[in-house]
Amino acid sequence: MKTKFIFVTGGVLSSLGKGLAAASLGALLQTRGLTVTIQKLDPYINVDPGTMNPFQHGEVFVTDDGAETDLDLGHYERYLNVPMSRKNNTTSGAIYNQVIAKERHGDYLGATVQVIPHITDEIKRTVLSLADGDSAPDVAIIEIGGTVGDIEGLPFLEAIRQLRSEIGRDNCLNIHLTLVPYLRCAGEHKTKPTQHSVKELLSIGIQPDIILCRCEQSIPLEMRKKIALFCNVDEDAVFSSVDVSNIYEVPLKFYEEGFDQKVAIMLRLPARNAHLESWEKLVHDSSNPQGKVTIAIVGKYVDLKEAYKSLHEALVHGGIANRVEVELRYVNSETVDSSNAAATFVGCDGILVPGGFGYRGVEGKIAAIRYAREQRVPFFGICLGMQCAVIEFARHVAGLEDANSEEFDPKSEHKVIYLMTEWFDFRTKNVETRDAESDKGGTMRLGAYPCRILPETRAYTAYQQNQVEERHRHRYEFNDAYRKTLGEKGMLFSGTAPDDSLVEIIELPDHPWFLGCQFHPEFKSRPMSAHPLFREFIKAAKQQARI
Ligand code: GLN
């Protein structure tokens, strides 16, 4: 097997940025000419995060092949610029699901099915599947979710402990990310939590090779030596992961520390020198904007920034492409109505309504969209945001007063957005069916679908292509029965399924920039190449701000 494995565990507490650290290390190894993939192992019982509330778990990231995954996969794609798939994320629930299915099928006939070896074997199989086939990468980084010491994470840790002896010490590396707090009153960094965390890891048989210390400021040499001594790692294997204001600086900071160099040496990787020009340019461009635009995000999950992670990044990318800083103003849609819209959006150069589920806050979104349409403020609606734009237009321009989505008002006379009970899944080549009572997990229109772009539209100006592929995650669709009525009133359907069966993009030509899409373009935006629709939206906002 040519693939080398790097296991990343976290200690002391969560939210230390394991995903960003793993992605940044992957990006650095890539610039050294290596092929890299990353996998996230999540210890919770949900089969995937698709059924979780964004407040619980942050955004659900969707891959081309229609997997609903952990938001860290978004970081992986943004840093590595390679598409992730179903293979790149698994959970305890998914592992148990497979083992139980095998048990029922009779695959283990005669045996007592246990965590060790059956669950751990299934985990190992999932990890090793990354190294299958001709396209096996040089390096696979495996990020283990949660914190060392959690009961839930134990089977994953046991599996990686076993893997080390199975695939050979030279082919594996354990990196442990911990917190090294700086105590201002004592004027020094404190290493005790790190020592305890490593002790915890050792008690389950894992000796870290590298310790990555999350800290406010770089850790002095003597402290690093102390950590090395007490945690039994090389003196030059303790690195600082300092807080940065711009997350795209992390790979450069790691490089300055010599982190990737040490990894390459320890794993004997055939790596050339790192080529960091594109990362340096990215950081330079994002740190030197020529102005600022303010974008209002009108949504329901505004108290948890993680809920709109990819969206946030895509807007930042749009800003970098236009050389402006993008200030985001999160507006709780439940607080917006027609009487306060003008006051709420004063100073905003663009309004964005993101995806979402459920009726709560929808009328506020519609009020925000009406304001954007009437006051000619650039508007971008994504998924639910597009659906709300259609409802708003149907109500206030086409005069269909009770227009609504079947999701919110199944009794509405004008269900301009409706549940498609039967559709052709081009991936499985099956006609799929569903109704309002269908299972909620994994039953949406998910993943990449083709979209045909009508020439001479704003969508075409953005994409410059006749056909694109974009990622979906929704149940409801534009109701074709209203295409003619709304079209006559000035709504343009600039993106549709190639056979014209589904509306994917709507726009209002008679407006500075008003566009809604049924898919989630934010999942495909990259720091070095902003998604075309975000680039154009920020460009319109920049014009609005007269920069
Ligand atoms: N709730 C809507 C639907 O299911 C929109 C989903 C979304 O915005 N992702 O179609």
Entry summary:
The protein has 18 helices and 25 strands. The chain is of the alpha/beta class.
What does the radius of gyration come to? Answer: 25 Å
Overall pLDDT confidence: 93
- Beta strand %: 15-25%
Bound ligands, named by name, code or SMILES = glutamine
Shape: globular
Task: State the CATH class of the largest domain.
Answer: Alpha Beta
Q: How many distinct beta strands?
A: 25
What is the name of the CATH topology of the largest domain?
A: Rossmann fold
Order of strands, widest sheet: 13-12-14-15-25-24-23-20-21
> Which architecture of the largest domain does the CATH hierarchy give at level 2?
3-Layer(aba) Sandwich
Largest beta-sheet details: 9 strands, mixed
Task: State the helical fraction.
Answer: 25-40%
Poorly predicted residue ranges: none
Look at the helices and sheets and give the structural class: alpha/beta
> How far do the termini sit from each other?
54 Å
Structural descriptors:
547 residues; alpha/beta; Rossmann fold; nine-stranded mixed sheet; seven-stranded parallel sheet; binds glutamine
Descriptive notes:
The chain is α/β, with parallel strands linked by helices and 547 residues long. It folds into two domains: 4-282, Rossmann fold, CATH 3.40.50; 290-544, Class I glutamine amidotransferase (GATase) domain (Rossmann fold, 3-Layer(aba) Sandwich), CATH 3.40.50. The chain is 34% helix and 22% strand. It contains 18 helices and 25 strands. The strands form six sheets. A nine-stranded mixed β-sheet has the order 13-12-14-15-25-24-23-20-21, with helices on both faces. Helix 1 (18-31) packs parallel to helix 3 and helix 1 (18-31) packs across helix 9. The N and C termini lie far apart (54 Å). The model has no long low-confidence stretch (mean pLDDT 93). Glutamine binds at residues 355-357, 383-384, 407, 473-476. Glutamine (GLN) binds next to strand 21.
